[in-house]
Amino acid sequence: MARVETKPKTRIQTEKHGRILEAALDVFSENGFRGSTIDQIAAAAGMSKPNLLYYFKNKQDIHQTLISRLLDVWLAPLEELNEAGDPVTEITSYVRRKLEMSQNYPRESRLFANEILQGAPHIQAKLDGELKELVDREAAIIKRWISDGKIAKLDPHHLIFSIWATTQHYADFDVQVRAVLGPGRGGDRRHADAAAFLEAFYVRALKP
Amino acid sequence: MARVETKPKTRIQTEKHGRILEAALDVFSENGFRGSTIDQIAAAAGMSKPNLLYYFKNKQDIHQTLISRLLDVWLAPLEELNEAGDPVTEITSYVRRKLEMSQNYPRESRLFANEILQGAPHIQAKLDGELKELVDREAAIIKRWISDGKIAKLDPHHLIFSIWATTQHYADFDVQVRAVLGPGRGGDRRHADAAAFLEAFYVRALKP
DNA sequence: CAGATTCTTGATCATTTGGAAAAATTATTA
DNA sequence: TAATAATTTTTCCAAATGATCAAGAATCTG
The whole model's pTM is what? Predict the structure, then answer.
């Protein structure tokens, strides 16, 4: 019959779909969209190229699927700023969650970084829509905390950017971080050290 | 005669070399290494592909040249931490210089980001050597400032990472920054706002 | 200005890569 | 189990791309 167009239906489809996306995440996050070939992805997923193309109609289709799922997962932790909680704690624990995501999902972080670096051709609309709205909402909460004198007066949007930048740095620029820290401190310790640094850093910057 | 191997000699070589590298910076920074074609670069440099290949023996050669020159320029501002100066001022003005580089040389920033994202295949050695040594040297200065109680106790290496991350973010993630800030604040103002934010942010985090 | 050198171009190749078609195989179900 | 549907493989193609080369055009030098 015709090629699989939308959602997986059979047992095999579900499984293969998953294997392909998993493999594609590996390949795309390492080589970028244009640097990745269907063959590579197929090989990583343990199947032939035409077989892969039976499940996804082309390379873009795989990438698109990956990217749009990503954005949801990626933004999840920002949803959880609780206005009623202690502001400094709320923000530092957001920093911690975001850093943990960089540690646990470095491939996703790199996939995202690649996409943005190339000018976000596939998610511009989501950035202008969903993302902006979400950030504006959280920025409003931060602004109120500032008005109430609960944290230092710092531009909320740029504060959020700084959190994204500092945390994602540990995933996206991992090679550089390791190189600079050297064999000792660049090992497994680096994440714990980063967490400790960021905690101290944001507490100092935020407390009124 | 044989192809140009090392340094430009004639007037024409000097000029064409420059044009090619300039064009390549445009193209590579926008599309990454594998996403860029020799044809694109040649077109951007206003010459034919074979003509371009008369000056550089292949695509990698252009990229390599660009990347290795880049690292020197890129690290320059870090050299200028003056131990005798006022610590907070020294660091915030380093932040400012780095941010200005992101504004004035976004292509270089993206080229670098691309390279690191792909695992730094062409500059791993420089990261382990030059870069690490430079950072260690500056970290030592910061450490002494901390020991002398002149600035807050914060891990120097991670502090430097945070500066790189927050400043480069404005070049590498520019599309995202613009999208989130929206048409108003995402315009020309965004750099000045970023500068003001980072200044306030680092002063607060650093002062003892 | 003539010869030597440097530069440019048009034609051409070989490879890689995204993708399609159809045949062959395997699973599902009536 | 026979018929049908789903999956996989084999084979192939066309476009894109990195790279070469020989010949012609321009430039430089004595």
Answer: 0.93
